[in-house]
Amino acid sequence: MANSRSGETVTERIVRVLETFDADRTVQTTAEIGRRARLPSSTAHRVVAGLVECGLLERDEEQRVRLGMRLWELALRGSHALRLRQAALPFMERVQARVREHTQLAVLENGETLFVERLSHPHAGANITRIAGRLPLHASSSGLVLLAHGPEELRERVLAGPLEAVSPKTVTDPALLRRVLAGVRRDGVVVAPGTVEAVSTGVAVPVREGRGRVVAALSVVLPRSTPTGPAAEALRSAAAGISAALGARRP
Amino acid sequence: MANSRSGETVTERIVRVLETFDADRTVQTTAEIGRRARLPSSTAHRVVAGLVECGLLERDEEQRVRLGMRLWELALRGSHALRLRQAALPFMERVQARVREHTQLAVLENGETLFVERLSHPHAGANITRIAGRLPLHASSSGLVLLAHGPEELRERVLAGPLEAVSPKTVTDPALLRRVLAGVRRDGVVVAPGTVEAVSTGVAVPVREGRGRVVAALSVVLPRSTPTGPAAEALRSAAAGISAALGARRP
């Protein structure tokens, strides 16, 4: 891979440019991209022009830049995330029809919880997660499921800290977190009141693929006052359905 | 952008590698990728290694390669496609609850119909479209909506042909296609029996953003024998809802 004088590859610079886009910054000038990616102006212009040329970025009428549909297409059409999400969606809809709150699907990505799907009821309560958004593993109910069933080495690294408090109720004590994770593996469900937002309780269950490996966490976010039993039951039933769907040859 | 001896940029080679993945090839060896991308073996290994390094590709236990969750995340979190799709999903669910067949959302991408969302009823009939899949503009009901409301220059280019027949009922006569497109603009709905698959009828309506520009097509795929009136009505109502949702400041 061609290296710049800084030793950084073109691929790394492309990733840095793409990273400057998020839900609050879907359109930017090349100068803004360069500043946020900490790239020299000439480099930013060259990388952006190359990405526009290939359709991975698009320019609008005012020459501002946004992520291209081509990037979206390349990222999705051959992706495991899409397969998982397509298998899960019908079951997530059933959960949502019963629970009428936020229903979410999350995976483990580079040591964090990455949300790959979210259905929201129009009258559902507070919830800070977004599709393609992240949270630390120890904070949310989904993350606790993924951490409990994730690689031993990752679990020990997270337990070694630091354990950031996302809310005053986030579990930040390593010994307590270790007991919580053992409980998750034993009970097959996490109930996490207030660990992300004080007003909400997360309820999450593991989603297993054919051979039993946990590949995702399925969760709902309820107001703190709502009983969690019916949601846990709906999630368990949905997770079983998703596992069966993933076991079939085609999603 | 660093150029290879062939004059191709690193960005172009990255796109060629990503293009080798699709719904039927989610996992490949580097040798397979190189062959499909028509890249020399050493180049393929270098490009793949760079993409794995940045998380855009991932290796499994057998050293085979698949699209990385990081690519999925970068492509989605700042994307217009996600915003459109999140605005549309609740309304698509209502359509599907009423029509109980395939409900789809498509956009115009580089002169083709790109499907960005699809909901399928368990007992729905035949439908060849896939999320992140494409069809020629003149073939499907969604494409006819996008073509009718797309740039004049694109419409003339498509009308100049060649007009490929996806099924025996695809409109391939330029004069007839021109009349069909005028009808789409006049009626605000397309009913396309058998133009993609002989057994199915596509029904599609335009989705407009705040200022009235058509940004997507919303469609259902029905068995040929099903009356199209109720579906057209459900689609019109949903398209109005999506337009209102897109007009709001945040999806």
From TrEMBL, chains A, B:
Quick one: a GO biological-process term for this protein?
negative regulation of DNA-templated transcription
What is an example of a Pfam family matching this protein?
IclR_C
What InterPro entries does the annotation carry? GAF-like_dom_sf, HTH_MetabolicPath_Reg, Tscrpt_reg_IclR_C, Tscrpt_reg_IclR_N, WH-like_DNA-bd_sf, WH_DNA-bd_sf
- Recorded GO terms, molecular function? DNA binding; DNA-binding transcription factor activity
Keyword list, A-Z? DNA-binding, Transcription, Transcription regulation
- The IclR-ED domain is annotated at 70-248
Residue ranges constituting the HTH iclR-type domain according to the UniProt record: 8-69
**Top-rank taxon, per record:** Bacteria
Designated name of the protein? IclR family transcriptional regulator
Q: Tell me which species this is from.
A: Streptomyces caelestis
